[in-house]
Design goal:
heterodimer, A: mainly alpha, two-stranded antiparallel ribbon, 8 helices, B: mainly alpha, rod-shaped
């Protein structure tokens, strides 16, 4: 930001929405968003590593306050999973739900950090320009999660029902077994399978991205003078408080959809 | 809104995190929670059992107490009955004994009276004979009138 000579609203927003990229191969696909990847990995390692450190010393007796906190979170997620998923949830689905919730929540929460202050710190202390600190405002992150889950869903569909069982389900639900509606059923299922990862990823992306943009717009009030700065700060604080709800809710919804999709893959109609 | 290699890198990171959670985070915590749940459930069950046993014991003790009271009442009643029986018996025995003593005394008295009468009669007879002998010293020859004297003696009996 300091390098720019003229600061206009579009350059301000554009600056904050630019990724730190690295070309890893030929073509427009072989580009890596270093900021997204590094931030998300650091957050994942921090949060899951913290849980792991606590859990490693977990006692079945009287738990420490930290362990009790982790247990509360885990128990909350485990209960939600138990209500939806009726297989052996401890093998994959429940730990996966924990991973998704914790990781997405951490990534979303980056949204609440004051965007210009963190940008300044990263720029001055680490020399990093254009470092986007909210990985979930990157469509690549949300698509990566949703598609991983989508592939797991396909895998378990085939594994649990068998290839024949799954094909049967594709052709014979939801409208019935009659050959007349096979095409309709297949079309319907096709739309469903396409829309699942799209709605799954775009919901999270849209909410967090919009939140980020609103923070930027509120930040622009600072350009209008002292009273504008105060006004923007008050609105920004309000939006941040409201955003605590949004980031948690979006992480929870993302987790719940994960569990629901996995559950649908395990149960035949 | 450009999809690029970041997607694949993020998917790899995601898989690694899932693997880590499945492998290292979930099992120990689940074990700890389940063990604690079991401990708590056992404790609750033990408490419930203890309360049940206490209830049974108090029930039993009150039963025993009631039975003991009943027994005591019975024993007291029996004892009272027996006591009155004993008293009655004693009275009866005493009366019989008294009667017997009285009868014995009466018999003794009668015997005494009889022997006193007998000895008196003997004395009177002797006196009469002696008186008569004094009066009739000369005329009466004891030998000659022995049968007469005997007859008189016989009469006085």
């Amino acid at each position: 930001m300091a390098s720019e000579t003229e600061l206009t609203p579009s350059s301000y927003i554009g600056h904050h929405l630019t990724y730190l990229t690295k070309q890893v191969g030929e073509g427009s696909f072989w580009v890596l968003h270093v900021d997204t990847l590094v931030t998300s990995v650091i957050l994942g390692v921090l949060s899951l590593g913290f849980i792991w450190l606590v859990v490693r010393k977990a006692t079945s007796g009287v738990p420490s306050k930290t362990q009790a906190f982790i247990e509360l979170a885990v128990d909350f997620i485990d209960k939600e999973v138990k209500n939806i998923f009726h297989g052996d949830r401890h093998a994959l689905v429940a730990p996966m739900a924990l991973t998704v919730f914790v990781w997405v929540l951490m990534m979303n929460t980056m949204d609440i950090l004051p965007i210009d202050i963190t940008a300044k710190i990263l720029e001055n202390a680490f020399g990093l320009h254009n470092w986007k600190i909210v990985p979930t405002t990157d469509i690549n992150t949300t698509f990566a999660l949703a598609l991983s889950i989508w592939f797991l869903m396909l895998f378990y569909n085939v594994k649990v029902k068998g290839l024949g069982g799954w094909l049967h389900e594709l052709f014979c639900t939801p409208f019935g077994k009659s050959p007349l509606v096979w095409i309709l059923n297949l079309l319907f299922n096709f739309i469903e399978y396409v829309s699942k990862p799209l709605s799954h990823s775009l919901r999270l992306f849209g909410n967090i991205y919009a939140g980020e943009v609103i923070f930027l717009l509120l930040g622009m009030w600072a350009a209008t003078g002292i009273s504008g700065t105060i006004f923007g700060a008050i609105l920004g604080a309000g939006w941040a408080i409201f955003h605590i709800l949004v980031v948690t809710l979006q992480a929870f919804i993302f987790m719940m959809l994960t569990v629901v999709y996995m559950s649908m893959a395990h149960e035949s109609h | 809104m450009n999809i690029n290699f970041t997607l694949i890198s993020q998917a790899i990171a995601f898989s690694v995190f899932i693997w880590f959670t499945v492998k290292f985070v979930w099992p120990p915590l689940l074990r700890a929670i389940e063990e604690r749940q079991k401990t708590i459930a056992d404790g609750l069950a033990a408490g419930e059992r203890g309360r049940h046993e206490l209830e049974l014991a108090s029930q039993r003790s009150s039963d025993v107490l009631k039975e003991a009271k009943q027994r005591a009442t019975e024993i007291i009643l029996q004892a009272e009955k027996r006591a009155s029986e004993i008293v009655e018996e004693a009275k009866k025995t005493a009366k019989e004994e008294g009667d017997r003593i009285v009868a014995g005394a009466k018999a003794d008295i009668e015997h005494e009276v009889f022997s006193a009468k007998e000895s008196l009669r003997q004395h009177v007879a002797d006196l009469a004979v002696a008186g008569a002998a004094k009066i009739l010293r000369r005329e009466v020859d004891a030998k000659a009138h022995a049968d007469l004297l005997a007859a008189i003696q016989e009469d006085l009996k």
